[in-house]
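Tutorial sheet, problem 5. The two components below are modelled jointly, 559 residues in total.
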Amino acid sequence: MAKTMSERPRVAARPAAPRLLQSAGFRFALLFVAIFSVAAGFLVAVLWWATAGALDRQTIAAIRTDATSLVERYREQGSTGLAEAIEERLALDAQNETIYLLVDGEGRRLAGNLRDWPTAIGEDGAWFRTRIQHDGAVAEARVHRRDLPGLRLLVGRDESERVQLRLLLTEGVAWSLGTVLLFAGVGAALIRRALQVRMRPAVATALGIAGGDLTHRVPISPQGDEFDRLGASMNDMLDRIAALMSGLRGVSDAIAHDLRTPIARARAKLEESLNTAAGEAELRAAMEEGIADLDNITRVFQALLRIAEAEAGARRAAFAPLDLPEVLRDAAEFYEAMAEAREQRLVTSLPEHLRLVGDRDLLLQAVANLLDNAIKFTPQGGVIRLAARETETLIEISVSDSGPGLSPRDRAHALERFFRADSSRQMPGSGLGLSLVRAVAQLHAGEALLLDANPGADPPGLRVVLRLPKP
Amino acid sequence: MRWLLVLPVSAIAVLPIQSDRPLRMTTESAEYCRTLAARLAETPQATAELPRGLGEEGRHLCSIGHYRSGIARLRRAIRAAQAEPRRS
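Model answer (structure tokens):
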């Protein structure tokens, strides 16, 4: 099935995302919320580790130290000394937070403040949390088990105050996180809205362009931010497209106008010969003339294609290092004979070497066009000069003649396609020579200038200068 | 609202709670009041002003059934007695 122009490239068939997720603004906002939440979560984790975690670690350290001290006491004074140490610790526990229980092998309580040995609490060295009844209220406790020969010991701490503190912390953290998420949400909404507001002019412009009106441009704010730079780039692009389209329209009009005449002329000649030719020889001569006319038209098309290629930069791949004077000498050698035939002098002023990176064929064609023009417009006995030189940053090629030159008004249009000055209408030519020169100069990131060869003189002559940047 | 917070606090704690039935304490009774009072009496500096005052207060609170506060006073009295400088 043939592809139509309206078909657009498709990346891949994917299930459509929810409408909200299709908005880049929303996705940016979501990213903002995610980063904000991760940062807040990290902050809370650090806060928790430094407060509730520190309390936990403190309790564990106190229990471990207490248990180790009691085990030492047992080693020094046996079970009686251990029981006495426990009772002494309980007697001094004004905060009423210590928990002890010492039982013998049969489970009989020897000392401590717990009535019974808890069930299912693991082996020697185990840590566990349990509930204790304090003054009728149930509290939480953290307990550590140590086994001694024929004895089992529990050492623990009431954690009800710490649990209360943890609850307060959790409450604070929950409120803070809620507030953080609320702010993140508000921030995300603001970001989304700001993005939408900043994108709106560009979108409106794009819609206007898509609607066929190429005069739309993105308004640029004085902020000069990324969106303004994007808008400026879009405007530059649109200006370039408008210029190209205008050029294209001009070229199309020019082709229609300038090629119609030679085609009509060739047709008329052939038709006339068909009607009036007296014999085969006359008919053959008319056909040969017609073929020559068509060859000229073909040459015009080839020139147009070359200009188009040069302007599009399609030939940049053919760039290679070259010695410019060598190219110029080749051109001069070719045109010298033509100049001599018209009793003109072609004078060259070229350095020994001049290194350049470019398209040899196109440069040769451009210089050939300039020399061809110069010879065409220079009267008998006139002088044509071909020169090249280099400055600090540029390489300059110039072709001067002693012809009539160009008026300032003609110069403004002389580089356009199919332009022919009134004074040159009688001369053979297509009006494409200087267009190619300008296209070649631009392809080499340079420019073509039209100047008076002898300012103030009459006639002033024409000097065409190609300025190309040095490699 | 508050019960909602108990869940994350319990979840964050590393150790789960082991027993279903709360363990009973033996140090919240008249008997333990008497034990502490006897221990205070045996302490050499028990007659000093602060331990004596705290001890009397503790015994009084225990006698009217306020064991927790009575026991707290008696424990402070024992602490104070142990902290008192020994008479030569």
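Marking note: The CA atoms of residues 251 and 436 of chain A lie 13 Å apart. Full credit if you identified this.
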